[in-house]
Amino acid sequence: MAPEKSRGVCADAYLQRKTLIVKDVDQYPGHIACDDKTKSEIVLPLIYGVDSDKIVVLGVLDLDCLAIDGFDEEDREGLEKIAKLIVNSCNW
User: Per residue in 61-77, pLDDT tens?
Assistant: First the structure.
């Protein structure tokens, strides 16, 4: 799904099943602001069943930053590990 569908970053990350880094939320089509002070965002899907035939996206981990360009690839790598820990630590 493309961001231009105006669903917001969380919905796009959920539907695309991939981490999205938004360097400037004001430039993201359809961005839904939870806090008008937020300038950048990273959203990670919480994916269950990666090693099985049934893959389920349980939700998303959504982090906001008050600075433009607040997240980078290093953040993505670390936060994707945390997202896996969250999924693996629960009895779904």
Answer: 999 999 999 999 999 99
Quote the CA–CA distance of 68 and 24 in Å, as a whole number.
5
CA separation for the pair 12, 3 (Å, rounded): 6
Helix (H, G, I), strand (E, B) or coil at 85: helix
CATH topology of domain 3-89: Beta-Lactamase (3.30.450)
- Per-domain residue ranges for the chain? 3-89
Question: Which pTM does this prediction carry?
Answer: 0.86
Q: Which residues contact 69 (CB under 8 A, 6 or more apart)?
A: 23, 24, 40
> How far does Cα 14 stand from its chain's mean position?
7
